[in-house]
Design a protein that fits this description.
The complex is a heterodimer of chains A (about 170) and B (about 290). Chain A is an alpha+beta fold. Chain A is built from 2 helices and 7 strands. Chain B is mostly helical and about 290 residues long. Classes of the chains: A alpha+beta (about 170), B mainly alpha (about 290).
């Protein structure tokens, strides 16, 4: 009996370790067949242009006139990359400030601020959201795996996505 | 310990000063104000306690404050001036470092001022000032404040006695001794509370029409000191109320630091924070001058 329990524990631990491995770098289909996986990344805060009065005074100067923090940029990525992998790579290259925290309860990261514009800067329901091909997936950006040709847009919302036309995510 | 001249002023003056100094230290985040407060607080504590006492009371603060200043940029990454990136791609910014430093200085200054306050604002002054307004509470506060050192002293004396009777040989015995000493101290404290309650009752605590003895009189110099304090305090606080001294740490360090209004406010604040020290030094000079004539 004791022996069986030992074996069982060993198997369990082993399976745990297997679970820890990096997510399978699944083959992502190369849609246009040019041998590269590309996506575009854009960061915008144009919803803030209409509610500058709600921002703290010292933050108003941070907002670009056209509301674009990063104009749509084409990026190469490797199979299995998440939205966040592309995001951190590009924003560091472009020297755009951002801050995130690990939201381990959701097994993802949470973007607190981009370009010093933070969550809650424009009221209690404001913060950053991302869409892929104009769809708000309602997932953490490090759990969403990219496909070839995806268009990622990070945008600032002042009321939980309603001003971006994002559908409310069911709980 | 040095008995300073400011302690000899009326308790109301003492209270007004410490409320003003602590309040402004804790609520104003302007960097120059924080520096002024920190430096004057340290200078006053140094005067009150001497070099040794000063180091004993606030020496432990230095590493804590440095740690605080380092911790902030590790966990807070806001700010436009990126210095370098952490291993997880979050940036370390100048603004976060400055904010960490400012909050560390604020905390340090508050602790230093509280230390000064403890030395100057003794429990008889608490009773005197609040005895009429909130008799039960002020008595409770002064008894509680007295209880902590008393408890510590008794515990130490029990431990010393035990050690004299039998020196513990191993950790287990040490632990046993410490535990029994603690339990003895706790039961002593309970007994004490009952005894003091009985003693208070037999001396007529709570009987109508009793007054507390005190030797404080509000003299002319107290009035003058209070007036100067109010004036300086207003000079230091008004520019803030009218938004002249706004200072933001995030997203970039912004705020007028060296305009004429600001410099005037600094002078007022510096004068306010150093009022007790100025009084003390003036009194010392007078004393020395008079003595040398004899």
């Amino acid at each position: 009996m004791k022996h069986v329990v030992k074996v069982l524990i060993f198997v369990l631990v082993l399976s745990l370790f297997c679970g820890c491995g990096k997510a399978d770098t699944a083959k992502v289909a190369d849609k246009n067949g040019d041998g590269k996986l590309t996506c575009t990344l854009e960061v915008r805060c144009d919803t803030l242009l209409d509610s500058l009065d709600k921002l703290p005074a010292e933050k108003v100067g941070l907002i670009p006139e056209n509301g674009l923090i990063l104009t749509a940029t084409e990026v190469e990525f490797s199979g299995g990359d998440s939205v966040f992998d592309v995001f951190r790579k590009v924003l560091r290259e472009e020297k755009i400030h951002f801050e995130y925290v690990d939201a381990s309860a959701y097994d993802s990261v949470y973007i607190e601020g981009i370009g010093n514009l933070y969550e809650f800067d424009c009221g209690p329901q404001s913060g950053w959201m991302f869409s892929v091909n104009d769809v708000y997936p309602g997932l953490g950006c490090s759990t969403y795996t990219l496909a070839d040709g995806d268009a990622i847009v990070f945008s600032y919302t002042c009321d939980l996505g309603a001003d971006l036309g994002a559908e409310k995510v069911d709980e | 310990m040095n008995k300073d001249a400011f302690s000899g002023f009326h308790p109301a003056v003492n209270l007004a000063f410490f409320v003003a100094a602590l309040g402004m230290t804790m609520f104003i985040q302007q960097p120059v104000y924080l520096l002024i407060s920190m430096i004057s607080g340290c200078a006053y504590l140094l005067y009150l306690q001497g070099k040794k006492g000063f180091l004993r009371q606030v020496g432990y603060l230095a590493p804590i404050l440095i740690l605080m200043a380092i911790m902030n940029p590790m966990f807070n990454h806001e700010g436009v001036t990126v210095l370098w990136y952490l291993h997880n791609d979050n940036p370390v910014t100048v603004e976060a470092i400055c904010f960490g430093l400012a909050s560390a200085v604020m905390m340090g200054a508050s602790i230093v001022w509280f230390n000064c306050c403890n030395t100057v604002f003794t429990s008889d002054k608490i009773i005197y000032l609040f005895g009429r307004v909130i008799p039960a509470l002020s008595l409770l506060i002064s008894m509680t404040l007295r209880f902590v050192p008393q408890f510590k002293n008794f515990l130490q004396s029990v431990l010393r006695t035990q050690k004299a009777m039998h020196k513990p040989e191993n950790t287990k015995e040490k632990l046993q001794q410490a535990l029994s000493a603690f339990s003895a101290t706790v039961s002593w404290a309970m007994e004490q509370s009952i005894i003091s309650a009985d003693s208070m009752k037999s001396r007529g605590y709570g009987v109508q029409g009793r007054t507390a003895f005190s030797i404080y009189t509000f003299e002319k110099r107290d009035g003058i000191a209070l007036g100067i304090l109010a004036l300086l305090c207003a000079g230091a606080a008004f520019p803030h109320l009218f938004g002249q001294m706004g200072f933001a740490y995030y997203p970039s360090l912004t705020g007028e630091l060296l305009g004429p209004v600001q410099i005037l406010a600094y002078l007022c604040y510096g004068g306010m924070c150093n009022l007790p020290l100025i009084i003390d030094v003036m009194e010392d000079r007078k004393w020395n001058a008079l003595r040398s004539k004899i």
